[in-house]
Amino acid sequence: MNIENLLPIGSVVLLKGGVKRLMIYGVRQTDKKSQVEYDYIGVLYPEGNIGDDYQYLFNHDDIQEIYFKGFEDDERARFIERLKNYYDRADHQ
Description:
By secondary structure, the protein is an alpha+beta fold. It contains 1 helix and 5 strands, in the order E-E-E-E-E-H. A 5-stranded antiparallel sheet has the order 4-3-2-1-5, with no helix packed on it. A hairpin with a 6-residue loop joins strand 1 and strand 2. The longest helix is centred in the C-terminal third of the chain and has 18 residues. It is globular, with a radius of gyration of 14 Å. The two termini are 19 Å apart.
C-alpha cells in the first residue's frame, strides 16, 4: 500500500463481504499476536469502540466502498510524510 493513499482517521468504509460499516481510527497497525502489519484498524460505525473484540484490522484492498473520507490538514500531511520516510528507510535496511 502506498502510504500517500492511506485514508485519514475518521473515514467510514464497508469491507468486501461486510454488512456493517467501520470507522478507521488508526493507520499502519500491527497485530499483537501475529505481528502482521495492516493498513488500518477500525471500529463499528456508528457504535465506536465497544471493546477489543470489536476492533478490526484490515488492508486497503479489503475495502469495498468508502462512505466518508476523514479530516485532512497540514498536520496530517506532515504525519504522512514522516510515515513515508520511516517506511522508505526501513525498506532500505
